[in-house]
Amino acid sequence: MDALFQLHHLSYHYQDGGLRVDILKDCEYSFEKGKTYAIIGPSGCGKTTLLSLMGGLEAPCDGYVEYDGENIEKKGFNNYRRYDIALIFQSYNLINYMNAYQNIVCAMDIAHIKEPNKKERALKILGRLGIHEQEAKRDIRKLSGGQQQRVAIARAIAKNAQVILADEPTGNLDYATGQTIIQNFIELAHQDQRIVIVVTHDQGFARQMDVCLKIEDGKLVEV
Ligand SMILES: Nc1ncnc2c1ncn2[C@@H]1O[C@H](COP(=O)(O)OP(=O)(O)OP(=O)(O)O)[C@@H](O)[C@H]1O
């Protein structure tokens, strides 16, 4: 098995008025290269919390996340977030004073991507996602929600991160645009051998992923 990314006894709880509330309990899982994963479960079950732990945005209370044979906390969350993973948020988190291709070039600069012509590469990736040169150079705030989400995906692709974590990436989009985005994720995993993990409430999209996981009583289980 080609496991690049693993969860070991991952647990997370918080205190509420002196009471301990367990969100994730001893989660164990190995994610494989070249596969897409959906994480589903009712509101409040801990999906975003799990994504935050996997993304190195927050430290677990117990257990650890392993990437390429190393505990991400020991590797350093900042380096891990900078080089190894890409996060895609429901709210896109694009830099609003840069256009689409500048957002992508900026992400490549931050990740120290060695590429002789970053602008050309950015435009090429955007083009593959249906954002052509004219839109790529427009004020980013003037792009539609679906276009902005595709820019956020292009940014994740350009960064060469092996693991892509997306939190409700289709939440704000109509069905057809959401479907295009899911198709992009599938191609990214199957053609580029990346791991794509998507938190979604949409059962239809979840079913199109190679593996569907749900959080049940704090445990991560395959559906
Ligand atoms: N540090 C914290 N302090 C207080 N409450 C917290 C903390 N971390 C998580 N929670 C609570 O834990 C629960 C799980 O939150 P999380 O956002 O992970 O759920 P979710 O499954 O992503 O929900 P949704 O589908 O509604 O986005 C929520 O009730 C949230 O308010």
TrEMBL record:
<dbReference type="GO" id="GO:0022857">
    <property type="term" value="F:transmembrane transporter activity"/>
</dbReference>
<dbReference type="GO" id="GO:0005524">
    <property type="term" value="F:ATP binding"/>
</dbReference>
<feature type="domain" description="ABC transporter">
    <location>
        <begin position="5"/>
        <end position="223"/>
    </location>
</feature>
<keyword id="KW-0067">ATP-binding</keyword>
<dbReference type="InterPro" id="IPR003439">
    <property type="entry name" value="ABC_transporter-like_ATP-bd"/>
</dbReference>
<dbReference type="InterPro" id="IPR015854">
    <property type="entry name" value="ABC_transpr_LolD-like"/>
</dbReference>
<dbReference type="InterPro" id="IPR017871">
    <property type="entry name" value="ABC_transporter-like_CS"/>
</dbReference>
<dbReference type="InterPro" id="IPR003593">
    <property type="entry name" value="AAA+_ATPase"/>
</dbReference>
<keyword id="KW-0547">Nucleotide-binding</keyword>
<dbReference type="InterPro" id="IPR027417">
    <property type="entry name" value="P-loop_NTPase"/>
</dbReference>
<dbReference type="Pfam" id="PF00005">
    <property type="entry name" value="ABC_tran"/>
</dbReference>
<dbReference type="InterPro" id="IPR017911">
    <property type="entry name" value="MacB-like_ATP-bd"/>
</dbReference>
<keyword id="KW-0813">Transport</keyword>
<protein>
    <submittedName>
        <fullName>Putative ABC transport system ATP-binding protein</fullName>
    </submittedName>
</protein>
<dbReference type="GO" id="GO:0005886">
    <property type="term" value="C:plasma membrane"/>
</dbReference>
<dbReference type="GO" id="GO:0016887">
    <property type="term" value="F:ATP hydrolysis activity"/>
</dbReference>
<comment type="similarity">
    <text>Belongs to the ABC transporter superfamily.</text>
</comment>
